[in-house]
Amino acid sequence: MAQQYYHTVTFGCQMNERDTETIAGMCEEMGYTNVDSVEDSDLIIINTCCVRESAENRTLGHIGNLKRLKDKNPDLVIAVCGCMVQQEQAAETLLKRAPHLDILFGTHNLHQLPKLVAHVKETGKSVIDVWQSEGEIVEHLPTRREGKLKAFVTIMYGCNNFCTYCIVPYVRGRERSRKTEDIVAEVTRLAEAGFLEVTLLGQNVNSYGKDLPGEVDFADLLLAVNDVPGIERIRFTTSHPRDLSDKMILAVAQGSKICEHFHLPVQAGSNRILTKMNRGYTREYYLERAAKVRELAPGAAISTDLIVGFPGEREEDFADTLDLVQKVEFDAAYTFLYSPRSGTPAAEMQEQLSAEVKKDRLRRLMDLQNEISLRSNQKLLGKVVEVLVEGESKTDKDKLSGRTRTNELVVFPGPKSLQGKLVPVKIVEAGTWTLVGELVSFQA
Ligand code: SF4
Questions:
Q1: Residue-wise over 121-150: b if at least 16 C-beta within 10 A, else e?
Q2: Of 169, 187, 193, 324, whose CB neighbour count within 10 A is largest?
Q3: Ligand 1 pocket mutation pick from 161, 162, 171, 238 by most atoms within 8 angstroms of CB
Q4: What is the pLDDT of residue 444?
Q5: Ligand 1 and 163: CB distance under 6 A
Q6: Do residues 157 and 104 both lie within one domain?
Q7: Distance in angstroms (rounded) separating the CA atoms of residues 311 and 80
Q8: pTM above 0.85, yes or no
Q9: Are residues 394 and 358 in the same domain?
């Protein structure tokens, strides 16, 4: 039989990227080989995101473009999965709109892809299979990893928080934690395959273990992963501020391989808006947790996410956000304009703000944060930091780039042979987003 090829397209977050690695692993187990172009594919899988409507629109455009390939090659199998498909009635609507699709499956039954592909090949008919509830976590699925140095490891699925702007709990279900031994076994396999860095993934890693029998929590998991020989760096995302315990901060300070970087999305600095967002904490609580990080893990970086222009946000609420940003002095912040996501309570709220107001506030917030990020980077001038070399710099092919333990991007001249190594680099220039360094002599 002639060689068959598969191609994957991923929209959205790191969880989706990790799921696509499993999809790729299953495709290879079915005998398909990866190919870069859709034109040469026999099986195309699109892993979708629905967090923003703009991502959905891009996905729909992509799906529409595939029709001409299906017209040319009726044996081509096109599958769509992920969060967009998991929404109520979305699969049926999508198939009506794009009848050239063969398989639509949801976030809870990824592992069924081989069965669904076999079904389509046997019957020639499209199939929709979207589970409404989560089911058991399926372990030991095959995986094709992207890269050889850094890997994502999903430690839990779903979210219990129901922030009013967010669709995730509706499409990813409730929190389910993987067993510690399964996670440690996966990290051990990655270490044996030569990976140096793992990022532990979950919508809210700080509530890891709450659904497991016994007393295990995220701090225990971090320290268990810290003991895996061969792994040099451990990162984690995302930490919900409400569930950030002292024990977890101390684990970061204590574990020699755990990177001192907390990504703690605050979203807003006004108590009125935090309540409307259903975030489950106040600005005072957040400021206290950030101070605790500075106290128990000195030198740790704190980054955040901020949403500007949430429904009903007044100028004084926005001033509270600016004030909180000034007080915490985030090392980095990802700033977003609020955009209504249908299917969430916030999309139905009164007092949606105009685009002009939102854009103006976003600009003012970014100006402030850029100043703070620059100041934070300037503190590293003259210091020697450990950098994990990822490869040549995207902006200057003659230089190498990598990240510090606290997640700053560093660019510096050096031989390509250093790729995949941890090297000491002295910081000689500091910009808002990038540091420039010089290699310090060391024993490889
Ligand atoms: S914590 Fe809130 S923002 Fe994060 S995934 Fe859960 S509902 Fe969405």
A1: eeeeebbbbbeeebeeeeeeeebbbeeebb
A2: 187
A3: 161
A4: 63
A5: yes
A6: no
A7: 32
A8: yes
A9: no
